[in-house]
Each structure stands twice: as structure tokens, then as C-alpha cells.
Amino acid sequence: MEALLKIEGLTKRYGKNTVLDKVSFTLNKGEVHCLLGENGAGKSTLIKILSGAIAPAEGKIVLDGKEYSFLTPLESINLGISTIYQDVELIDSLSVTDNIFLGTEKTVGLGHVNHKAQSAAARGLIEKLHIGIDENAMVQNLSLAQKQMLQIAKAVHLNARILIMDEPTSSLGLEETKALMDMVRELKAEGVAIIYISHYIEEVFEIGDNITILKDGQYVGTYKVSETDIQSVIQKMVGRDASSYYHRDEVKLGEGVLEIKGYSSGDAVKDASFTIREGEILGMGGIVGAGRSELAELIFGIRKKDSGQAILNGQDITVSSPRDAIEKGFCMIGEDRKAMAMFPDCSVFENLFTVSREKEKGFLLDTKTEESQTSDIVSKVRIVMAGKEQTAGSLSGGNQQKTVIARWLLSKGKIFIFDEPTKGVDVGAREEIYKIIVELARNGNYIMLISSDMPELISLSDRIAVMREGCITQILEESVTEEQLLNYFIGTE
User: Residue 481 belongs to a domain with what CATH number?
Assistant: First the structure.
């Protein structure tokens, strides 16, 4: 195969945290090169460097024999690198054709868009790729699978030579996945080089030529698909020494029981049921797209449910909205704190009391009590800040997360849902968050812990519920290894 792209010693740091450490590999023309690793392995960082979204601290990118220390987004596009992210990046209010030609419009006369020529070209491209959508359809009316296909069509229109696909099938059904796989094969046959990122390892073995594995930001190795197997890949992905695990204190479980019964929402969550004992940490594991966050949103009332009931010690506490959830003692620490939890331009003080003030609903604020509580909670969860008037957005990632957790501690709720609680958090803050979670369990709370970090899940959980394709497939009562857990996640155990 002809080498098209070489990355040599790429390194990226955020402060003292190295998220990508001297990673190197080669991408050949007409190759599907699969990039594997757990969450936090460095995959997203690597593709952001290649797409020009961030610059590396060290290393180089060699394309067509020319060396680059970094790329800008425009350079990346002009060099033929096109990235299709897991979250669809299209404009819903425009047509299929207009999305394909956005920024590269065909014009006539004094800059007028030649809609007829664009439609004809779009129709030809759609037929070539066997997508089966109307070039005049509004993107908002397309299915998720059609939107994924459209993003590929747009990349082909831009003459992409290197196509980076980030979890392209995570939300697709079997038939839709098959259609996308067929398109990947056609592009490969035409000489397009593809970097394919997926948590579905069977998919990788179906479509890939080579596999590069990253672990904890470091390069593990590159392997020919024809010369390895699923179990070998899993072992290389998760192999880790005991120092990666947190050693938590044991907590005696109480008599209380939270029952979650039959939660469903379309294809995202299907008849999910489980129990959590008083003082228990129930882990919730699964690969991307398994439905864990969607289930949490159903329980907390963020997402509309088709069915489902929550019962605490025989009393129905099913919620109808997030406000109702707060009233009934639910606490939700969401995965995306910036979008779902933080008010970055407000002070730490204001961020701390948004929930407790909502519960009290008084006409006058008891600022004296709040001042005292601020001092106590900041000390308890060890928020490092210049002062309570510092804006929350200016805190470090770990201190932002501790501020969100502190807010819910002040609400005096009993049921805590943690969704990726240590995402984007440094090692020191991570351990402090673990201590908070264990202390909540010790105080008789009910804890649901969603995490893609397997050492975190194994270390903290009393039991682990496994989700796959919207269903809870099993609840693991005994301790497991990372390798066993990953096998449960992908359905090979």
C-alpha cells in the first residue's frame, strides 16, 4: 500500500496532564485504519489535531511527503482531510443539496447561486453513493442514518482523500449500519483512506485492514486485522496495573430500596429495570450508544418516557420533570457540566445555591445562612478558588465538577445519579470526587454511577448493570476484570 499520511510523535498536554504521548502511525491510500481505545485513550485528541481543531505540543504530521507541525481547520480541509463526528454537523433548516454545497456554492452571473446545477450535481453524487435520499429534502426531516450518509456525501464532494469517522454507527440499526459499511467499502475501493473509530469491535474486524490501539494517551501498537483476534485486541486495550484502581472503603448497606421499573423511550431505552439498596453504588456500564445517559435522563425527567416507574421504600416517586425530580430528592450530575449544570459567567456562590433556593421557594434569601453553608461545603469538597465571587467558568475542570456536586449536596437529596463524574478531571480531583461518592453511600444515599472508565466502574461499584442497545442485559453481582467487563459490553461474554 502507498503511504498517504504519517503522524510522528504527536503529543498534547493540558497543563500538567498529558492526554496524547508521542503517538505515531501510518495511514495508507485505500486503507480502513481502525483506531481503538477506551474513553480517555486519546482518540478524540488525535482526530482533533488532524482536523485542525487543536495544535499538538510536539510531533509532526507528514502528508504527501510534506511536514506540518500543526494544521489549521482550513488547511486540513484543503489537504483533503474530512472529519465526520459522532454528533451530526449539518444545518437542519437547509436542504440536502444546500448542505452539500455550503461554502462551495455553484454560482452564475453576479454571484447568484445556480440551484439547478447544484441539484443535478447533488443527485449524481447521491446516486453514486447509493444513499437513497431526495436532494431537495430538508435535513430536519432525515433520519439519523441518512444524516450520517449525507455527511459522507459532503466529504466526497469536497474531494476528501482522508475520511475520519468517529463512532459512525453508534446510533444506527442493523440495516443502516450495513448500508454505511457498504459505502465505506466503496470509498476504500476508490482509494480513499479512512480512519475509523468505533467501540463495536466486531465491526472493526468486518471493515478494517489495520488496527491501532491507544491506551491512556499512549501508543500500544498497530496490528493487521487478519493477524489478530477480538480477545487479543481487548486485552491490549485494557491491560493495566493495579495502581489504576481506586481502593474504596466498604459501606454497610441499609434496609431501604429504590426500584426502577420498566423505563422505556423508543429505541433508546427498552424496559430498563433495576434496584439500588440504601448505601449502594450501582455502576452502569456499556459502550457508546448503549442508552445509559438516556436512561438517567428518563429517571430525572429530562427526557419524555413511554413508560417507567420509580418506587422508594414502597412509595411512588416517579417524576414528571426535572423540577419534580428535585422536589422528590433526585440529584443529577450530568455528563456535560458546561451544557447541563454550570452557569460559567456566574460566581461560585451563585452556582452553589441554584438548586437549594429552588427547593426552598422563599421570598427572601437567607444570605447569612448561605454564607455559612458556602464556607462549610467549599471546605468539605475542597473546591480550590480565589474566592466565592470567582466565576465558575474560570475554575479548573475538577473544581467545576466539585462545585456541581456541592450544589446537589446542599439540596439534601437522597438519590444521586452521576453520569461520567470524572470526565475531563485531573487525577487529584478524581480521587477527591471518589471520596465524595463513597461518603454519600456511607450516609445512606442511593447512587447510580454511569462511567465509561472501567477501572472507575470496577473500583467504585457494589454491582454493575450492563446496558447494550437500550437494554439492561445483566447485573453483575461479583467482581470482574476489565477484559470480562468489555466482553459483557460488546456481547461476546
Answer: 3.40.50.300
